[in-house]
Structure formats: structure tokens, C-alpha cells
Amino acid sequence: MDRRAFGLSAVASLAVAGCGSPNQVSRFKAYDGPEVTGVVVNKGERKLYLLNGEKILRNYKMDLGFAPLGHKEVEGDGKTPEGLYRIDRRNPNSAYHLSIGISYPNADDRARANALGKRPGGEIFIHGEPNNDTARKRAARVSDWTAGCIAVQNEEIEEIYAMVRDGTPIALRS
Fold it and tell me: Which domains does the chain have, with CATH numbers?
């Protein structure tokens, strides 16, 4: 292929690449409001709150683990943890739209599970809806469908993902 043909080919490729649907919206939002200084999960209310100091910036309805009462003790118990943790990671390639990680298990959680001769589990996230159609339909039919995570709608996790920074404290309460 000569230079002229290559150049025309490259220009055509770039032009086609720019022809995405005008209705496509990035799931990565920008946020320039007040800093989120804390996250509170009230399991009994099924509400997640984003705070700046004492002020509630946003609140969301949420689903929990399939056996939500009580503190998560061991892997597979279906409980959502309770206690003080931190947001410690994010997953832009989540099987649940987007997700942000919670620092469960801590040393106390590991010690309790170890005393029972079990593993504490892990991989606890705030996330969106399942990407898989079958799982999404199932989740829509029941409440508290996760394995211990906190689930919100996709549009909501996009907002949370933009607003909450790694290191933010999170309190999970019954």
C-alpha cells in the first residue's frame, strides 16, 4: 500500500470511528461538587447515604446480600458486613456495570472467621445491576439478591463512582 492510499485509509477509519451513536452516554461521569467525606449504609432502611460532614449529599435505595440480617461472618453466608471500613478500590470492568470496593475483611473479621475454622469471604462492593441478562432479570424479581454486596441502579453507581474517592470511610449499620 502506498503512502497516499494509507493516508486516505487512516482518515476514513478515523471518520468512521467518530460516527458513534449520538445517544451514547459514558458511564464515567464527572463530579465537581462538595467532597464526599463519608458513606453510610443503613441496612434496615435499605438506604445508602453519601455525606459531606453531617450533610447528606445523595441517598439511594439499595439491595443487599440474600441473608442481610446480622454481620457477615463467613464466606457464602449471604450477609452484608457491618462496621467501619474504607472504599479501597474500583472496578471499571465489573460484571455489575461499575463497582467500588469495600475493605472487608479487616483483621477482626478474619480472626472471627478463623476461630470458626472458616474463611471470612471478601470481594464486597457497591455495584450496579448485573451485565448478564439472565442475572439482571433475576435481580429485578427479588430484593436482597447479592452475595453480600450493596447493589444500586446503574445510573446511581455511575454517580457514586464519580463522587466517592478511594480512602473514603464507609459505615455499614443494621
Answer: 25-173 (2.40.440.10)
